[in-house]
Each structure stands twice: as C-alpha cells, then as structure tokens.
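debug: dumping io for the single-chain case to check the tokenizer round-trip. Nothing else runs in this session.
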Amino acid sequence: MTAITRFESGPRMSQAVTHGDLVFLAGQTAAEPEGTGVTEQTAQILGQIDRLLALAGSDKGRILSATVYLSDIATFAQMNEAWEAWVDRGNPPARATVEARLCEAHYLVEIVVVAARAAR
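debug: decoded output
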C-alpha cells in the first residue's frame, strides 16, 4: 500500500500531501497580503510553493499542473509578470487561470499545484 504523507497539517487541512510519486499542494495565498498588489502577492505565493515542494521532495521543474485563481481577471498580466520570472522555462506545467471570489478581500491571487516527486 502506498503511504500518504501530510506536511504542515492543521485541524482543517494540510499544506502539502504526498501519495506515491505525486505532491498535492493546498491553495496558496500570500502570507502578507496587506498593501500588496497582484505581482507582489504572486511572488510571495511562488516562494511558498518552492518551499513546500522542497519539503515534499520536489521542485518547480516537476510541477505537472497549476491552477491560478485571480480575484480580478484584469490583473492577469500582473500575475504573469511574477510567474514568468519564476517558472522553469524548460519544464512549464499545464496551467489554467480563472477569475474567482477568494476567501478574503485582501487576497488577490491563489495558486494550487500538483507536482511529481523527485526520483527516490
């Protein structure tokens, strides 16, 4: 039976879960959203994704898919500014971007990723 490992778990959810060779991250929002714009929030989130993937035995070059939620689709270019500076150009994931109402008004971006773990 394949083990399930949970990282940074709380009463409601885990920030990352591994099962077999897959890593599932919870939706990531900016740790310090107050007074920041979409580009800054996206950069914060991408840093969190890097950290969680490393914790789970993966990295951004192994991301299989990403879903980006924007509170306002008009900020798509601002989000892409941070994304394009960060993404592994040799291994870009499948990605979808949608407009959605996020859990709190100060969150402008939320990103969910699924990645493959590094060979063990």
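debug: round-trip ok. The mean pLDDT is 96.
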